[in-house]
């Protein structure tokens, strides 16, 4: 073989650093400090050891420098010399369980930290993610990152380890697949013979897939230190190999070499579209979407608070403050929210948010979530309070209703209103003098938050402007008594009739618009789970419990002009645990109390459910079922920047798959089943796992509420062929105790598009803030922003990084190209289109004060409005 055609094995020294997993963060950090001390010494003393990649995540630098701040310059020197490769991510997040905007912030922060030291490694390194999302190429391309390196999720239909991966908006990245993960070239032997054998087996794995003469050999593994003998190992290999050559390299160098060789052939290279979520070649650990469900719920709450409340409304409040007072809190707000994001992103690392670590790790996550929530809530509340006081007239009591979504929006809103002497709030009045009924929901007695007695009241807030607010006056009168709950089995309004079955507590829902009735909804189905934090696994002899032990207690707990609520109290009897051999479920039973509250609102085409579960059983999975009565081959699940159609059929495992395929799939705020004429959309808050089950009577949607297991990893599972992690007990993953779940049903005509707005409204309710004796300096209703049409969905609305403007990011959720308009309702000097990293791309097209946009399917666009400071 001519030297130029020799096989080139490019060896990438690296480590994979799970920051917290089977040990807590500080234990791993102590090892990290040791590893980096040695690495820096190695780079400083051995010029032949050329490169080291720090796992694509810059949090490693932060964690190290907190202990060794004296080594900042030493790191910068190695990064600038190109010997230490850092970034682009802040953490290696799970792709499916975090939001699209969170992935963008993760890259922004990772790149910004890396740049403090030198140029970041601009490779979408995703070595250990449990499958790859459909929109990842758009995200990477939006940062100018031209390539990705991935492992899990690729199936055998992709013919080569090098291909172009394309997102729905047409963004493409050159992608390198690691056929057996990121540790194939770990700890290379120092002796000739074992080394030659090892290189032979590495080539046997890589060569069948390679489409160029370059092979990517990853020299590292989980928490592994650099191998200082690597230069000698490479020299020894090259002395003994005739048809191949080894060299130390970096990922960017490997990608460049592949690109060079591809040259003019790039158009004929394989193109791969869609999400990569096959478990044929490597486990995707599909049960992590339901392990420790509380983590997914807390994460969603924090993302929602930051993105829909704290960021947009503090940006707006600061514009108003600057105008009216010549001063603002933008710098402090940005710093508080920066800390909130940092805590949240730390929790989004794959072993953390997936719930697949030891209990101590997740206990520390709970504290980070609480800190994040307090920070976001404080900044958000402060902003709403400030705007409400600026808006509310001087006399009387008012409630200012805030809408974090597009509009105008008519929806249910709850507010805590003060009492006036012995008089209670009785109704609301809008600016045109129209009266709105007010329904007292409950009294709130003085607490740590307030010294005054108040009443929680609900109303239908009509036509609240987009990303804005509307003011209502509160009319007081003599108190009326709250009605006592009474027995009833049905509630009804102009949209729906909902009836609870006295036999099993399931509900029948009649949609008056279509005349269709769906029966057997909201059925709780519990089965055994002998798996672990990574994988659901039904026991060989499973027992399903799908009805309560006795007839339910059904009560009408609210029945007013605004909201009616039926409470269904169910008494389930569940097997206490698995049998001792884990092959079945035990005979001993535990009571499981489930309370579902079903609410409908006058004028709102949505049926909201809140379910409380008191879990006392172990090793089981609890789901709630919704038979749609519809025939379909596909279902539609919301993803990060669009909606993905997934087939219902589960692929066939011929016995060779790394992990048996399963019907459960990840979702964002909704999943929809429709037959083109009508459909049922199920929306949720922080419940990312569903299954669309094809049954003889139609498709049933199952939503996972709890998956309870006791092990980080079981040594062997019938449906997984590899060990997923160390077999350590994790009793906290049994999720004993009380849990509350929120989901909602939207029956609709046509496809998911017609129910989309309701799905997002359920996920992001209106907020009402009461104000007495305000300043009356602002209009009674206003918008910060307006966007049309509704297929353009807001991803971020916040103060620009430099405090000099407003950043707006939106995407086209539709599967077709869409024209649209964006208008900032505050004065601004200029508007430009920027990258996802918020670097200028050019001026935006503006007509009559509106930015005109044309977006491809699922395309993401970022705009920066420059305001006058
Ligand atoms: Zn990992």
List keywords for this structure.
six-stranded antiparallel beta sheet; 33% strand; ten-stranded antiparallel beta sheet; alpha+beta; single chain; binds zinc ion; globular; 869 residues
Give the helix/strand layout.
Layout: E1 7-13, H1 25-45, E2 52-53, H2 59-67, H3 72-80, E3 84-85, H4 100-115, E4 124-126, H5 136-142, E5 147-150, E6 162-166, E7 172-177, H6 192-206, E8 214-219, H7 230-240, E9 244-248, H8 251-262, E10 271-273, H9 293-325, H10 330-347, H11 350-353, H12 359-391, E11 397-403, E12 409-418, E13 424-429, E14 435-437, E15 439-444, E16 454-464, E17 468-477, E18 486-487, E19 490-492, E20 496-500, E21 507-511, E22 516-521, E23 523-528, E24 553-559, E25 563-575, E26 589-601, E27 604-615, E28 620-627, E29 634-638, E30 643-647, E31 665-666, E32 670-674, E33 678-684, E34 689-695, E35 698-708, E36 737-749, H13 756-763, E37 767-772, E38 781-783, E39 785-788, E40 792-799, E41 805-812, E42 818-824, E43 830-834, E44 840-843, E45 846-847, E46 850-855, E47 860-866
Helix pairs in contact: 1-2, 9-10, 9-12, 10-12
The chain binds zinc ion.
């Amino acid at each position: 073989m001519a030297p130029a055609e020799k096989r080139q094995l490019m060896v990438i020294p690296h480590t994979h650093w799970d920051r917290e997993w089977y040990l807590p963060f500080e234990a791993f950090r102590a090892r990290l400090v040791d590893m980096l001390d040695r690495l820096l010494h190695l780079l400083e003393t051995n010029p032949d050891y050329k490169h080291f990649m720090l796992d694509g995540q810059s949090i490693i630098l932060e964690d190290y420098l907190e202990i060794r701040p004296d080594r900042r310059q030493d790191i910068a020197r190695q990064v600038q010399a190109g010997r230490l490769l850092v970034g682009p991510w802040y953490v290696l997040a799970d792709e499916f369980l975090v939001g699209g905007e969170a992935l963008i912030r993760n890259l922004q922060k990772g790149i910004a930290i890396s740049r403090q030291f030198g140029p970041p490694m601009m490779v979408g390194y995703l070595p250990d993610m449990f499958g790859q999302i459909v929109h990842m190429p758009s995200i990477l391309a939006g940062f100018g990152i031209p390539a990705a390196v991935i492992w899990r999720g690729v199936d055998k239909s992709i013919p080569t380890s090098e291909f172009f991966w394309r997102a729905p908006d047409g963004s493409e990245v050159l992608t390198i697949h690691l056929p057996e993960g990121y540790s194939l070239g770990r700890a290379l032997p120092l002796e000739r013979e074992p080394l030659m054998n090892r290189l032979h087996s590495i080539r046997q794995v890589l060569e069948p897939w390679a489409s160029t003469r370059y092979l990517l050999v990853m020299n590292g593994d989980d928490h592994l230190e650099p191998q200082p003998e690597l230069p000698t190992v490479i020299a020894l290999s090259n002395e003994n190999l005739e048809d191949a050559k080894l060299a130390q390299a970096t990922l960017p160098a490997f990608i460049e070499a592949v690109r060079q060789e591809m040259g003019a052939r790039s158009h004929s290279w394989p193109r791969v579209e869609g999400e990569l979520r096959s478990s044929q070649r490597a486990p995707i650990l599909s049960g992590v979407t339901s392990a420790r469900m509380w983590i997914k719920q807390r994460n969603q709450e924090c993302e929602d608070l930051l993105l829909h409340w704290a960021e947009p409304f503090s940006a707006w409040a600061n514009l108003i403050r600057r105008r009216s007072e010549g001063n603002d809190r933008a710098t402090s707000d940005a710093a508080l929210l920066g800390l909130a994001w940092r805590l949240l992103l730390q929790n989004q690392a794959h072993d953390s948010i997936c719930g697949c670590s030891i209990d101590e790790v997740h206990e520390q996550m709970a504290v980070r979530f609480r800190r994040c929530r307090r920070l976001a809530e404080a900044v958000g509340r402060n902003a709403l309070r400030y705007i409400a006081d600026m808006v509310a007239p001087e006399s009387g009591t008012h409630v200012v209703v805030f809408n974090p979504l597009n509009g105008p929006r008519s929806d249910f809103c709850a507010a805590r209103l003060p009492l006036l002497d012995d008089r209670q709030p009785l109704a609301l009045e809008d600016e045109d003098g129209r009266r709105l009924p007010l329904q007292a929901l409950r009294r709130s007695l003085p607490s740590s938050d307030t010294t005054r007695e108040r009443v929680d009241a609900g109303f239908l807030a009509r036509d609240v402007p987009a990303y804005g607010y509307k003011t209502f006056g509160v009319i007081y009168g003599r108190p009326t008594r709250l009605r006592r709950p009474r027995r009833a089995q049905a509630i009804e309004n102009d949209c729906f009739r909902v009836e609870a079955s006295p036999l099993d507590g399931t509900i029948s829902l009649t949609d008056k618009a279509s005349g269709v009735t769906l029966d057997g909804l909201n059925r709780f189905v519990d089965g055994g789970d002998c798996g672990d934090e990574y994988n659901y696994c039904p026991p060989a002899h499973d027992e399903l419990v799908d009805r309560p032990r006795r007839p339910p207690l059904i009560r009408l707990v609210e029945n007013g002009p605004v909201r009616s609520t039926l409470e269904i109290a169910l008494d389930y009897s569940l097997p206490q645990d698995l049998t001792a051999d884990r092959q079945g479920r035990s005979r001993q039973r535990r009571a499981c109390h489930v309370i579902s509250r079903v609410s409908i609102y006058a004028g709102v085409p949505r049926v909201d459910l809140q379910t409380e579960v008191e879990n006392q059983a172990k090793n089981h999975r609890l789901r709630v079922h919704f038979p749609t009565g519809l025939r379909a081959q596909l279902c539609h699940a919301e993803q990060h920047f669009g909606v993905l159609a997934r087939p219902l059929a589960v692929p066939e495992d011929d016995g060779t798959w790394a992990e048996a395929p399963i019907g459960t799939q990840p979702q964002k705020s909704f999943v929809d089943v429709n037959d083109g004429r009508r459909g049922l959309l199920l929306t949720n808050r922080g419940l990312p796992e569903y299954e669309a089950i094809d049954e003889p009577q139609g498709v049933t949607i199952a939503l996972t509420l709890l998956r309870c297991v006791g092990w980080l990893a079981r040594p062997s599972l019938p449906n997984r062929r590899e060990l997923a992690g160390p077999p350590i007990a994790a009793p906290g993953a049994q999720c004993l105790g009380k849990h509350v779940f929120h989901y909602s049903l939207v029956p609709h005509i046509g496809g998911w598009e017609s129910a989309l707005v309701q799905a997002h409204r359920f996920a992001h309710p209106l907020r009402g803030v009461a104000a007495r004796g305000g300043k009356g300096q602002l209009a009674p209703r206003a918008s910060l922003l307006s966007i049309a049409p509704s297929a353009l969905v807001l991803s971020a609305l916040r103060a620009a990084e430099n405090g000099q403007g407003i950043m707006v990011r939106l995407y086209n959720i539709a599967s077709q190209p869409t024209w649209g308009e964006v208008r900032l309702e505050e004065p601004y000097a200029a508007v430009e289109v920027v990258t996802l990293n918020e670097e200028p791309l050019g001026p935006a097209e503006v007509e009559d004060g509106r930015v005109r946009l044309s977006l491809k399917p699922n395309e993401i666009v970022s705009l920066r409005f420059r305001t006058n400071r």
